[in-house]
């Protein structure tokens, strides 16, 4: 008779899910959600331990010759969290707040994000501690190439495929691809995604994350019995994700009444002219000085009386300190980790429907997958094909998470984690442990 190796879940040692020692710690926040889903799935203790630890963590020193002739040394990280389902996939960010804890959390989020939309990828993330706004193009290129050289052993179309993230873009990905290709001795387009179209990038990639947010917002409104026509929306963060989501939602009939970026926010009860705001940002590189609304703070935007709140900036903007003041009927998490673990129960008590980050902003990695497929096949799709396939995947994934949420009587975040963790765990069971 086969022995059931699983133990009762109460024998699995887990952190107290009701106690948040450090609400601001992104890895602890991610793991508290993981623990809840693992408990509901009755995950085996051994497999629980495997999925709770990243496979590989790399920290490199990056000496860079600056324009003034002096050498500065920057710190870079790359974490491969889990690659059981396929090559690691995850962005590279340049930001002063990058830390190994943040990169670990984001790599784990990427693992669950790829699994929740059923892509054949694992999860990774990378980052360099720097302020790119204070660096010249030449300094950024030298930084990028030296960082790439430092982590090049993990990179490759079959092992680890980076993409743009905070403060990185197509140009940075071109430098990563070129550095890797020069080391390999031939051009390897599939080593990164989010590249320029001329270098094997995919049509529709730049808009994909914002488009995905629009798609799941429409699905959520449909579930809640609300129409897109006249629905009021506040968007925090007006970078690539927030601006595209705002633009597409406005085209669907929503009224975007508030937008913001790091310089502050703007409110217009009659609706912000999103196209004008985008042109303003293209001209001055921020919303500062925008005249299309009354000035408000980012905190006031989060607490504004709207139907939909779309946080598309950085993590931990909704915490236990301000969650009770949120007035939106639903939240679509365009950023990674915008809601702290301590805020989840407060939002639940208020009856706010949350489309979690690992589902809401998965449009970007989905079209990154499309780009990787196109590069490897050497055949490229029309933008209409890309958008249609993105819509199909996002709608199907939303429906699968919603069904699980109803079945287990849990919120969408817990259901999304349950779905993704179960998919990763299934592959681990099938593959076994190599010894």
What does this structure look like?
This protein has 435 residues and is α/β, with parallel strands linked by helices. Among the domains are: 54-188, Leucine Dehydrogenase, chain A, domain 1 (Rossmann fold, 3-Layer(aba) Sandwich); 208-360, NAD(P)-binding Rossmann-like Domain (Rossmann fold, 3-Layer(aba) Sandwich). It has 14 helices and 12 strands. A 7-stranded mixed sheet has the order 9-8-7-6-10-11-12. It has a 5-stranded mixed sheet with strand order 1-2-4-3-5. The longest helix is centred in the last third of the chain and has 26 residues, at 383-408.
Summarize the structure.
The strands form 2 sheets. The protein has a 7-stranded mixed β-sheet. Strands 1-2-4-3-5 form a 5-stranded mixed β-sheet. It is built from 14 helices and 12 strands.
Question: Main traits of this protein?
Answer:
7-stranded mixed sheet; Rossmann fold; 435 residues; 5-stranded mixed sheet; disordered N terminus; alpha/beta
Report strand order across the widest sheet.
Answer: 9-8-7-6-10-11-12
> How do the SSEs run, as a string of H and E?
HHEEEHEHEHHEHEEHEHEEHEHHHH
Categorize the overall geometry: globular
Into which percentage range does the β-strand content fall?
A: 15-25%
CATH superfamily of the domain at 208-360: NAD(P)-binding Rossmann-like Domain
Second-tier CATH architecture of the domain at 208-360: 3-Layer(aba) Sandwich
Query: With helices defined by DSSP (H or I, 4 residues minimum), what is the helix count?
Result: 14
Q: What is the number of beta strands?
A: 12
- Can you tell me the CATH topology of the domain at 208-360? Rossmann fold
State the CATH class of the domain at 208-360.
Alpha Beta
Largest sheet: 7 strands, mixed
Helix content: 40-55%
Q: Radius of gyration, rounded?
A: 21 Å
Low-confidence stretches: 1-21
**What class would the helix/strand composition place it in?**
alpha/beta
Give the terminus-to-terminus CA distance.
25 Å
Average pLDDT, rounded to a whole number, is: 93
